[in-house]
Write a structure and sequence with these properties.
The structure holds 2 protein chains of 2 kinds. Chain A is an alpha+beta fold. Helix content of chain A is 28%, strand content 23%. Chain A contains 23 helices and 31 strands. Chain B is α+β, with helices and mostly antiparallel strands. In chain B, strand 13 and strand 14 form a beta hairpin. Chain B is globular and about 60 Å long. Classes of the chains: A alpha+beta, B alpha+beta.
C-alpha cells in the first residue's frame, strides 16, 4: 500500500505494509536510522517519535496509522546538516548522552514536553521521560539537560575541547555530536533492507536432545539461502573468552544446555524471514531433566553438564591469610549471615547486532563489541582461517557492561557471509538477547566476620557459590576476583575466602560490571553494620577505624606504599552522614507514621585490570602532513568515554589541544590492540599507553623543531609551530617525507601494569592499582507497604585523577542506577522475564539526586595519577541501600532484589524479633 | 481479503467484521508487543482508529459516554466531575506518556489483562460496555463483559463502541492507587479504586471499592461497600476496613509479588484511598 505522511516537514510517500511497525518503515524504508529499536514492545522508548506533536513509541504504531499525519524524528531538532539544536546542545553540555542509543528517544520525549512547557520543573521532566529507559547515565544529567535547554539558543556553537591543559577539564565528550544528532552508527545501523538476514533457531528447553528433519527440503520450501548447523562450522565449533576454558558451541551438537541456546540459523532475505514461522522449523526436541540451581548442580546425583568438570564445578578461587577460624573463635563480636542474589541482565538498550561482508579472503565484521581482538581470534578459529583473515570493526556500542565482551551475533554473521559471499545483517530481538547472552552470576554467600572489643576486624570466613550457567564465559574470573575483593577495602589480618563457580542449565553467567564483587560486597557491608551495632560504635566510624591505608597489608599480602584512598572517601562523607542521621532521627521522632527514614553507608574497592595476568594495551599516534593528529584509538568506547578520556591524556602528553585530534576507531586491521573494554582498565592502562605514545611523539616533534622540552607546540594547517624563549619555529609539514597514509611523524607505545601471580593461598600482587569509594544513601521506607523511596545519594570516589570530571560524574550516576536496580528490582528468571516489562530496570523516577565527591589520591602507575572507575561505582550502592533500609526499619534483607513484598516480609520479621 | 483496512464509517467496519477473520487494531500497545519477534502484525487487521465518532467524551441521558477509541491522554486532561479523579489518576499511570498517547480505553478492556489499570476504576464507576455488530447494538455491565483472564463476552463480529457510566453525581469522590516496583512503565502489583458519596448529614451514602491485579478479573468488595454505607464520613472510616472484606480476592504468587503480600497491600491501599477521599472532603 502507498503510504503518505509528513516526515520532518517533508512530504513522503512510501510503499509499505500498513500493518508494519512505523519504526521499521522509518528505519528500513525511509532510512531514518536515528529511530532505535530496543524492544519492539513499548518497554524502552528508544523508538520514540512525535506524531502530531505527541510522543509515541513507533514500534507499537501501525504505519497505516501514520497516513496523513505529521511525523518527526530527532532530525527535526537539528538546525542544519550536522548542527545540533538547543536541546541537543544542552544534552552535550550536561553529558546527558553516554552510549547514545537512548538519546534520540529521550530527545523526542523531551521535545514533546518542551513544546508545551519550555521551562519544566523536575517532576514534569520525569513524567514526560518516564517511558524512555537509559542504562548508562542514571538519568540525572538528562533531567538537568532538559530543564536547562531554554538557556541554549538555536544558533549557538558547540563546545569543543580547546583547553590548554586537557587533563582535568570537564570537556563534553568528543564523540557526542553524532549521538545527539542520532547519526551515530550502531550495530543495527549498517547495511540496507536488501541484505540477507539471519534468524536463529533456539532451544525451548533448559536441556534437551534434538534431531533435525530434512533441512534442505525445508530450505527450498521456505526460499532461504542457507541453513546453518554445527555441521557447517568449518573450524572449531567452540568459543570462549578464556581460551583454556572455551566450551561453548556456535551451534549445539545433539544436546542443548540452556533455554535459548542456538541449534541452527536460517539465512534469507528479510521478507522471507518476516513470514517465517520459527515453530515450523524441522527440529524435534526431547526434553531432559535439567540442573536449575547451584544446589542441584552440586548434588552428587546431578547430571554433568561438561565431561571432565567433576561435580559440575567449573572453577574455584581461594585467598587465605593468617588463621581465620582461630581469630573468629577468639573474637569478641561475630556477625554472620547467608546472602543470595539472582541472575542480573545487562539490559543495554541496544540488542546485539552487526553486519558482515566477505572481501576476498577476508571476513569483515562490523559489530557492537567490547573486545574486537578477542572476537577476531575466536572467529578465526570458528571459520578455520588465520587471524589475519578476520577483520573486526567495532561499531558504536549501545551499552555493554560486560556482556558484549562475549560472542553473540558474530559467528552467525561470519559463517553466513563467508559461505554465501553476500552481505548479511542481523539484530537480536530483545527476547533473544535476554535469553541467550550472558548474565551476572547468581550468588549464594555464607559469611562470618569477627571483631575485637574495640571494633577492630579480627577475622573473616567467606564461602561463595556462583552459578555460572551452562558455559564458562567469565566464570573463572569471577571465581578468582571475588576472594581477592571480599574483604572490602579494610584491614583483616585473618581471612579465608573460597569460591566455586558451578555449571547449571541456565544462560551463561559472564562479566557484568564488577565480576562478582558487587555480590560479595553486599554480604560484607551488611554484616559490617551489624558488627558496628554490636560493638556500639557509629557505622561510618567503624569503617574508618578498619579502613586500609598506605603501608598496610591487603588480604593477599599486597602492600601499597601510595594511592590508597578509602579513608579519604569515608571521611569525605562524614559531614553529610551526621546531617543525614540527624535528619532521619527528626523525621522518625513521632513514631506513628508508616514512613520511616534511614541512612546507610558502604565502602568499596576494586582492582583495575586483569587479576595477576598480563593485560597490555597499545596506542599509536601520528602527525599528518595537514597538521592533524591522528590517534589510532582501539579502546572501545561503550559510552563510558574512552574516546574522550584517552584523547585528553594523549593531548596532555603531546602538549596540544584535543581539537587537533582525529580518531581512528577500534579496527583489528588498523588500530593496535588496546585490549578489551572491561575490568575498569581503559583509562588506567590504555590511557597510560596513550600518554606514553603522546610523550614519544612530542619528543620527535621537539627534535623536528629543534627545541627543548620547555617549548610550546601548536599546529596550524600544514605547519608545526614551536615557541620557546620568545622564539617561534615553524616547520612546513607538507615539505616532509610522508608515509603512504600521509603521516610525517608517528609514535607507538604499550603499557602493561605490574602484577605478580597469586600463590596457592591467593597471596601475591593481583593488581597494580585499586580504586576506592564509599556511598551514603538516604531513603524512606513505607513500613506498611514495604516500598522504598530514595531521597539522595552521596558518592565519594577516589579516581586518582579525574581526567574528565564531567565523565567521572556520568560514570558515578550510571553505576549507582545499576546498583539501585540490583538492590530493589532486578532478577532475571529464564523463560519468565525475557522482556523489559517483566524484567525491571530503574526508570527516570527511580534515581534520586546524586552528589559526587571526587577524591584524587594519585596512583603512581596511572596516567597523571588516574585510576579506573567504571565498575567500582556499582559496588557500594546496593549494600548502602540495604543498610539504610535496616536503619529505617530494622529489616534485614539478605536475598535480593528487595522488592516491596520482600521488604515487607523482612519488616514483619524484624517486628516479631524483640 | 485485504490484509489491512481502516474504515471511517462504523457500518463499513461492522460489515467487514461480519465476514469474519479480522483482528481489531486500536492503539496497538498490546498487539505489537505480543508480536515482538515480527515487524508486522500477522493476518487481516481491521484498524478502528479512523472510525468517526469512536472517540471523545460526552454526557447524555444521565450517562457519561466515553468513546472506545478515546486515548488515555485525552482522559487525563478531560473536563470531568470529581467522581472521575480516580480515572484520571489511573490514566496517568498506564505505561508512560507514549502508551497513554496511543492506548485506548476500549483496548484496555478488550485485552482483559488481570493487571489492566482501567478495569478496577471502571468497575467502581459501574461502567457499562456498549458493543456493536451488523446485528445491532447491545450493552452489558463491565463485570459481565470481562469473563476471565484475557477473555471477554465480545463476539467475533463485534466492536466495543463506548464505555457508558451512570452519572455518579456531583457529590461523588474517587481515588485510585497503583502499587508497582518502580516509578514508571510498571505492571501493577495491586491497584485500588475507591468511590464514596457522602450525604448531607455527613454519612456514607454510597461506596464502591474495586481491586485490580489480585484476582483473575478485577473485582468489587461488596462486603466492605456495605460496611461503609451509613457510617460517618470522617477519619474513622478507613478503620472499618477488615481482613474478611477481601475474601473475594484470589491473588497469585508471580515475579512481581507474593500472593500474601498482594492481599496485605490491597488492604493497606484501600485504607489509604478511603482516607485520602475523607481528607479531601466529601463535598465542595
Amino acid at each position: 500500500m502507498k503510504l503518505s505522511f509528513t516526515l520532518n516537514g517533508r512530504e513522503v510517500t512510501v510503499e509499505a505494509d500498513p500493518r508494519r511497525r512505523l519504526s521499521a518503515v522509518l528505519r528500513e524504508d525511509l532510512g531514518e536510522r536515528s529511530v532505535k529499536s530496543g524492544c519492539d514492545a513499548g518497554d524502552c522508548g528508544a523508538c520514540t517519535v512525535l506524531v502530531d506533536d505527541r510522543a509515541v513509541c513507533s514500534c507499537m504504531m501501525a504505519s497505516g496509522q501514520a497516513a496523513g499525519r505529521r511525523v518527526e524524528t530527532v532530525s527535526a531538532l537539528t538546525l542544519a546538516e550536522g548542527m545540533p539544536g538547543a536541546l541537543q546542545r544542552s544534552f552535550l553540555h550536561h553529558g546527558a548522552a553516554q552510549c547514545g542509543i537512548c538519546t534520540p528517544g529521550m530527545l523526542m520525549a523531551a521535545e514533546a514536553l518542551l513544546r508545551r512547557q519550555p521551562r519544566p520543573d523536575e517532576r514534569a521532566v520525569r513524567d514526560a521521560l518516564g517511558g524512555v529507559l537509559c542504562r548508562c547515565t542514571g538519568y540525572r544529567k538528562i533531567i538537568a539537560a532538559v530543564m536547562d535547554a531554554h538557556r541554549f539558543t538555536d544558533n549557538g556553537t558547540t563546545e569543543t575541547g580547546d583547553a590548554a591543559a586537557p587533563v582535568g577539564a570537564p570537556l563534553p565528550r568528543i564523540d557526542g555530536v553524532p549521538k545527539v544528532l542520532g547519526s551515530e552508527v550502531f550495530g543495527a545501523d549498517i547495511g540496507d533492507a536488501g541484505d540477507l538476514h539471519i534468524r536463529v533457531i533456539r532451544s525451548p528447553h533448559a536441556r534437551a536432545r534434538f534431531t533435525f528433519g530434512d533441512l534442505e527440503a525445508f530450505r527450498q520450501s521456505l526460499g532461504a539461502e542457507l541453513i546453518l548447523t554445527a555441521k557447517d562450522v568449518p573450524g572449531r565449533n567452540l568459543f570462549g573468552v578464556i581460551p583454556p576454558f572455551a566450551d561453548q558451541p556456535v551451534f549445539a551438537e545433539g544436546q542443548t544446555r540452556f533455554r535459548g541456546e542456538a541449534v541452527a540459523a536460517v539465512v534469507a532475505a528479510s521478507e522471507v524471514l518476516e513470514n517465517f514461522d520459527v515453530d515450523a522449523f524441522p527440529v524435534s526436541w526431547q526434553e531432559l531433566p535439567a540442573v536449575s540451581s547451584s544446589d542441584e548442580a552440586l548434588n552428587g546425583d546431578a547430571p554433568l553438564l561438561h565431561e571432565g568438570r567433576v561435580g559440575n564445578v567449573m572453577a574455584r578461587g581461594r585467598v587465605r591469610r593468617g588463621d581465620a577460624d582461630a581469630a573468629l573463635a577468639a573474637a569478641r563480636h561475630v556477625a554472620e549471615g547467608r546472602f543470595s542474589t539472582g541472575f542480573i541482565e545487562h539490559a543495554y538498550i541496544e540488542p546485539e547486532a552487526g553486519y558482515a561482508v566477505r572481501r576476498g579472503d577476508v571476513l569483515e565484521l562490523h559489530v557492537c563489541t567490547q573486545a574486537p581482538y578477542m572476537n577476531r581470534d575466536d572467529l578465526a578459529a570458528i571459520l578455520g582461517v588465520g587471524a589475519d583473515q578476520v577483520r573486526v570493526i567495532a561499531t558504536a556500542v549501545g551499552g555493554g557492561f560486560g556482556s558484549k565482551l562475549d560472542l553473540s551475533v558474530h559467528p552467525f554473521l561470519a559463517l553466513a557471509a563467508w559461505r554465501l559471499n553476500r552481505p548479511v545483517r542481523m539484530a537480536y530481538s530483545r527476547g533473544e538477547s535476554m535469553a541467550s547472552t550472558t548474565k551476572r552470576h547468581p550468588s549464594e554467600i555464607a559469611l562470618r566476620i569477627g571483631t575485637d572489643a574495640h571494633g577492630r576486624l579480627a577475622g573473616m570466613v567467606f564461602d561463595g557459590i556462583f552459578n555460572t550457567g551452562a558455559y564458562a564465559s567469565w566464570g573463572p574470573t569471577v571465581a578468582n576476583r571475588v576472594p581477592v575483593h571480599a574483604s572490602g577495602p579494610y584491614h583483616i589480618p585473618n581471612y579465608r575466602a573460597e569460591t566455586v563457580a558451578v555449571h547449571t542449565n541456565n544462560p551463561p553467567a559472564g562479566a557484568f560490571r564488577g565480576f562478582g564483587v558487587p555480590q560479595s560486597a553486599i554480604a560484607q557491608e551488611c554484616l559490617f553494620d551489624e558488627l558496628a551495632d554490636m560493638v556500639g560504635i557509629d557505622r561510618l566510624e567503624f569503617r574508618i577505624l578498619n579502613a586500609l591505608d598506605n603501608g598496610m597489608e591487603t588480604v593477599t599480602g599486597q602492600v601499597f606504599t601510595q594511592g590508597v584512598g578509602i579513608r579519604r572517601c569515608l571521611e569525605a562523607l562524614r559531614p553529610r552522614w551526621r546531617k543525614a542521621l540527624a535528619a532521619a532521627a527528626a523525621a522518625n521522632a513521632d513514631g506513628q507514621s508508616s514512613i520511616r527514614r534511614g541512612v546507610g553507608v558502604a565502602g568499596l574497592w576494586y582492582g583495575c585490570g586483569n587479576t595477576s595476568l598480563p593485560n597490555p594495551s597499545a596506542m599509536r599516534v601520528c602527525l599528518r602532513a595537514d597538521g592533524r593528529i591522528v590517534l589510532f584509538q582501539g579502546a572501545v568506547d561503550i559510552g563510558q568515554g574512552a574516546n574522550t578520556v584517552i584523547t585528553q591524556i594523549c593531548a596532555q602528553a603531546l602538549g596540544l589541544p584535543v581539537t587537533a585530534f582525529e580518531l581512528i576507531g577500534p579496527d583489528t586491521a588498523r588500530t593496535p590492540d588496546a585490549g578489551k573494554t572491561s575490568a575498569s582498565r581503559q583509562t588506567f592502562i590504555s590511557g597510560k599507553a596513550a600518554m606514553l605514545a603522546g610523550e614519544k611523539l612530542r619528543t620527535k616533534l621537539l627534535r623536528l623543531a629543534n627545541v627543548s622540552a620547555a617549548a610550546v607546540l601548536a599546529l596550524e594547517s600544514g605547519r608545526l609551530i614551536a615557541c620557546e624563549g620568545g622564539e617561534r619555529h615553524e616547520i612546513d609539514l607538507t615539505a616532509l617525507k610522508a608515509d603512504e597514509d600521509g603521516f610525517v611523524a608517528e609514535a607507538s607505545a604499550s603499557y602493561d601494569p605490574p602484577t605478580s601471580p597469586l600463590d596457592e593461598n591467593g597471596q601475591g600482587e593481583p593488581y597494580a592499582c585499586f580504586g576506592y569509594g564509599a556511598h551514603l544513601v538516604e531513603l524512606e521506607v513505607d513500613r506498611d507497604l514495604g516500598t522504598v523511596r530514595l531521597l539522595g545519594i552521596a558518592a565519594a570516589h577516589d579516581v586518582g585523577r579525574a581526567i574528565n570530571p564531567l565523565l567521572v560524574a556520568g560514570q558515578i550516576d550510571g553505576g549507582i542506577a545499576q546498583g539501585i536496580g540490583l538492590a530493589l528490582m532486578e532478577e532475571y528468571l529464564p523463560g519468565r522475564t525475557e522482556n523489559l516489562h517483566d524484567y525491571l530496570i530503574p526508570t527516570i523516577g527511580d534515581v534520586p539526586p546524586i552528589e559526587p565527591l571526587l577524591i584524587e589520591e594519585a596512583d603512581a602507575h596511572g596516567p597523571y595519577g588516574a585510576k579506573g572507575l567504571g565498575e567500582h561505582v556499582l559496588i557500594a550502592t546496593a549494600p548502602a541501600i540495604l543498610n539504610a533500609i535496616r536503619h529505617a526499619t530494622g529489616a534485614r534483607l539478605r536475598h535480593l532484589p528487595a522488592t516491596p513484598d520482600r521488604v515487607r516480609a523482612a519488616i514483619r520479621e524484624a517486628e516479631a524479633t524483640p | 481479503m485485504a490484509e489491512y483496512c481502516r474504515p471511517a464509517e462504523l457500518g463499513e467496519a461492522l460489515d467487514l467484521l461480519a465476514g469474519g477473520g479480522w483482528r481489531i487494531l486500536a492503539g496497538g500497545t498490546d498487539l505489537y508487543p505480543a508480536n515482538a519477534a515480527r515487524d508486522r502484525l500477522p493476518g487481516a487487521v481491521l484498524d478502528i482508529t479512523g472510525l468517526d465518532g469512536l472517540d471523545g467524551i460526552g454526557k447524555q441521558d444521565g450517562f457519561w459516554r466515553i468513546g472506545a477509541a478515546t486515548r488515555w491522554s485525552s482522559l487525563i486532561g478531560a473536563d470531568l466531575p470529581p467522581a472521575f479523579d480516580g480515572l484520571k489518576q489511573a490514566a496517568a499511570q498506564i505505561g508512560a506518556v507514549q502508551v497513554q498517547n496511543m492506548a485506548t480505553i476500549g483496548g484496555n478492556l478488550c485485552n482483559a489483562s488481570p493487571a489492566a489499570d482501567g478495569v478496577p476504576v471502571l468497575l467502581g464507576l459501574d461502567a457499562r460496555i456498549e458493543m456493536a455488530s451488523a446485528r445491532g447494538y447491545r450493552e452489558m455491565p463491565l463485570a459481565e463483559f470481562i469473563t476471565g483472564v484475557r477473555r471477554t463476552a465480545l463476539a467475533p463480529d463485534e466492536i466495543v463502541t463506548a464505555v457508558r457510566i451512570p452519572d455518579p453525581g456531583p457529590a461523588a469522590r474517587s481515588h485510585f492507587l497503583k502499587l508497582g516496583t518502580r516509578s514508571y512503565l510498571v505492571i501493577s502489583i495491586a491497584m485500588v479504586h475507591v468511590m464514596l458519596i457522602a450525604d448531607p448529614p455527613g454519612r456514607v451514602a454510597d461506596a464502591r471499592i474495586a481491586i485490580g491485579a489480585c484476582s483473575p478479573v478485577a473485582c468489587r468488595l461488596s462486603a466492605l461497600e456495605r460496611e461503609l454505607i451509613g457510617h460517618p464520613f470522617d477519619t474513622s472510616l478507613a478503620d472499618r476496613v477488615r481482613e474478611e472484606h477481601f475474601a473475594p480476592l484470589s491473588p497469585i504468587d508471580d515475579v512481581r509479588a507474593t500472593a500474601a503480600y498482594r492481599l496485605e497491600a490491597a488492604r493497606e491501599m484501600t485504607r489509604r484511598a478511603i482516607a485520602a477521599i475523607v481528607a479531601g472532603g466529601g463535598r465542595r
